[in-house]
Amino acid sequence: MSEFSEFVFNDDGLIPAIAQQHDTGEVLMMAWMNREALAETLASGRVCYYSRGRKKLWRKGESSGQIQVLVELRLDCDGDTILLQVDQTGVACHTGRRNCFFRTMRDGALVEIAKPEITPEELYK
Amino acid sequence: MSEFSEFVFNDDGLIPAIAQQHDTGEVLMMAWMNREALAETLASGRVCYYSRGRKKLWRKGESSGQIQVLVELRLDCDGDTILLQVDQTGVACHTGRRNCFFRTMRDGALVEIAKPEITPEELYK
Asked: Which of A26, A88, A111, B25 has the fewest CB atoms below 10 angstroms from its CB?
């Protein structure tokens, strides 16, 4: 595995990765990668994160089928954030919404601006 | 200051915030906010981060003039990532580039895909 010397991992060995739909510019989600997830993503061309909750590799779409095909992997100026340009199959969010950022501040409170396109039950059946 | 009960801050009291140009969809940068930065951003309509290096509020553009006007502030499904839709004045990156993600992986190595629009010397004079 490459050392990825230009990538700056935090004390937990992780780096944040923003996923953006490559053609529309829609920001889909943000998750984390360790070196192994980064290496697998680059080798396979399918996005693999590291799940902090489950403490293991998270091959996006492995249970839902909603995979992310990697189009381009970019690194920021400080080397501590990745931007993934992807082609998202279906929905990115576990709630069944196209992207995870479906709440927005209006007059000091969060309101929902997108509805699920599929139920979580259908997504993970 | 609001408690921002739906926002999940990490052990250091911080939450990552992605800045996206509101009309073009360009992902400009990712930085961090504490509760105070979040409150100031919402109150002022100008994006304020927390600088982990300088350990203080970072009013984006305070030294360079390259401010970010807030258009919309969104929160993700888990409550632990913010998406800022902004109107960026000038360039977002301290290197003088429009956005911070100017390096991309090609054949296993990072290559630069954008050049500075202004020199850092001009930016911070």
From this structure: A111
